[in-house]
Each structure stands twice: as structure tokens, then as C-alpha cells.
Amino acid sequence: MLYIVDIRSNEIAGYLRGHGGAITSITVHPTEPHLLCTTSRDFTARIYDLTLSPNQEPNNPMWMPGAGPNRAGAAHALHMTESEGQYSGRCVAVLCAGRSGGHQAAVLGSAFHPTLPIIATCGLDRVVKIWRIPPPVEGENPPILREDKPLFSSSCVHRSRVLSINWSAPSALLCIVTDNKLLFDYFACRIGYDTLLTHSAPILLRRGPKEWQEEAGEMVVWQWLGADRFFPLHHPVQDVLRGCTSDYQESSSFKILSSVPLPYPPISQRIPPSSVQIAVCSSPSTDPTTRSNRHDPLILVPLLDIVRVINAGDLAPRASPPFPLDVPEVVEMTKRIRLDEGSGEGERIWQEGLGWGIETGTSKGKSRFDADEEAKESVQAACMSVDRKVVIAVGEQGAIWVWVHKTG
What we know:
The chain is mostly beta strands. The chain has helices at residues 227-230, 245-248, 329-335, and strands at 2-6, 11-16, 23-28, 35-40, 45-49, 85-87, 90-95, 107-112, 118-123, 128-132, 145-147, 152-154, 162-167, 175-178, 181-184, 195-200, 203-206, 212-215, 218-224, 254-261, 279-281, 298-303, 306-311, 356-359, 379-384, 390-395, 400-404. Residues 171-191, 288-292, 341-346 and 363-374 have low confidence and may be disordered. Belongs to the WD repeat ESC family.
């Protein structure tokens, strides 16, 4: 069940039903706050429009061999036989699950693009996907729009479940409107509108029949190389976007720009599964001359009792792999040698001096990963205001921290 609360009156403004499993995340569109996306353990993501009222009567298409409207319900992205909810909000689109192009496990996060009609999702199946948001359908009781083939899908960015996904693009001046058509601005495309940031959980890798190796999760900044193909410069955005099989099954149209290991405790010391969310704050202020973003995106990484703020420009670029003919055979064989367990050699280490930390001041070095029963609350997610003067963080037990930047 999804509840919409009016914080001004402290009353419920609406409640909606539709998912067949627990809701894992809720994302609000950065420039159109009436749109939101929920992800769930039923392998789907649903997009809601709060300006519409809930659907009360089903309006489903006819599926052969039946002679009437299909009554499969929410599992197949159709209207249920009962009311969708009350007051405000309606599901307008469903990003379906399935082997053809959808997620095959729980969807853990989503992110609207600030200006383009696309949304990115990530999940337990290690896959990151970029979907087209279908345009709205006019009418009193339109059917739910279904998308089962994304514009991009790949399981090669991460080796374990992907916990969060963010666009690093700014939320302004990425597009212009001319003759009632949405066009791309040439200078705006230099800002990185096709760049995303994702992070994954720690993973256990098998080293032998009875040997396992714990590897830390990582934060990856990568570029979607197919953005120019679907959204070319100085061309209007098309209402219908369709990719080919190599786009929605296992695409290679991406490039990893930077990869940073995360300093989370190993799996053997973690009691509950990790649900930490990493956020990206992009400033909307732009240079009037070049019309490009004045400030680099800031990355907020919760680390137990500290929120680490990292400038995206400080991340080291990914090292280019050497050309195979330039590597001597002895060097290549040396790289394949397996190190003894516990040696610590060859492991990627978190950079302690990366960014700056904001302490909660409550954990005193303890966290939920410690065996001590008096372990304090750890930060699970954090976000920053548009003007970058306020940081808000939430803990795993419901605590909320607010930091305000004071000048003078």
C-alpha cells in the first residue's frame, strides 16, 4: 500500500494499491513533483501521477482466447477488479518484469532523468536498466501503459546486487523548447546528461571448492553511450522510442568512468542486509556564457555514523587496460597468481581522504554491525537541498539528522 501525506495539514491525501510485493523505494521526479515511481519485490516499478484520481473501474484490453477484458490484474500490469485507491494518485505506467527485458528479481531503486522522458532502475539481479517513460494517454479511464523492453540493460556494471542509482545531470538547462518541440541544446550536452552513479553491496566470490573471498561493494560512475542515438542533438524528442535486442537484453553501450570501493564491513560481520542509499546533488545554477553547470555534482555516501560528501570531480578515472601485445607473458601470468587469504595484497582500498565527513555525533564508533547490544543507530540515506545549504539524513531506526550551513 502506498500512502500520500499532505505535510501542511498532516493528513492522508490518498492511498493506492497495486504492487504484489513489498515496496523497496519511492522516487519523486526532480522537476515534476507530481510524478513518482515505486519499486517493489514483485520485480516491477510503477509510475504514479498525483494530479489524477485513482481508477475505480477496470479498463483492460482483451487477450486471446478470451472474449472479454482480461482480469489478470496487477501481476500483468493491468487494472485490478477492485478500486485502485482513494482521493488522489493513479498508476499511469508499469515497468514490467520478465525475461524479455524486465527485471528478474526485486527492483531496489529508481531515478528519473531531470529533463528527458526516461527513468533508470536497478535491482537484486545485478542489472541496471534505462526505460522510456510513455507519454500520457488522454481520456476519462485510460488503460495502464506497459513497458517491458528498456532502452538499455546490462548486468556487467556490477557483480552484486545494485542498491541505488542516480543521474549526475543537473536539473536545469538541458533542453530548450522551439516551435512547441523539445530540442537538445548543444552546450548542455557537455554537462554529462548521460552519466549515472550506482553502488553495489559486498559480495562473496568462490575461490575454490571450500574457499570464499569477500569483496567490498563499489561505487561506479558510468556513461550511457546510447543516449545520443535515442536523443540526437537538435532533434525533437520522439514519443515512440524502441531499441533492438542488444539494447534490452545485454547491452554493451556503456563506459565505466570511475570505480571506487566502499569501506563497508565484510559480509561475515553484517547481521541484516545492507540497504544504504547513495545520493547525488547537482546544482541547477549555470554559467550564462557557456550555459554549463558551474558546480560539480556532490555525492553523499552514508558510512555508519558519518555522511561522507564527495566532489564527483575528485574521483580518480578508471585506468585504461594495457594493449595485450604490450604486456609480456611473464607479467600476465604473474597477475593470474592467486594470493594467500589474509595477505591483503592486491585488494582495492577505500581512500580515507576522499571528500569530507559530517558526523552524527551519536554512535561513538559503534554501529549495527557490531556484536555489542548497545550499538547505536547508523545512517541509511542522506540528501542535500538544491542550494547545498541543508543536509538531511535518516537512520535505520527512524532517527533524522538535519545540518544547516551558516555563513558569517
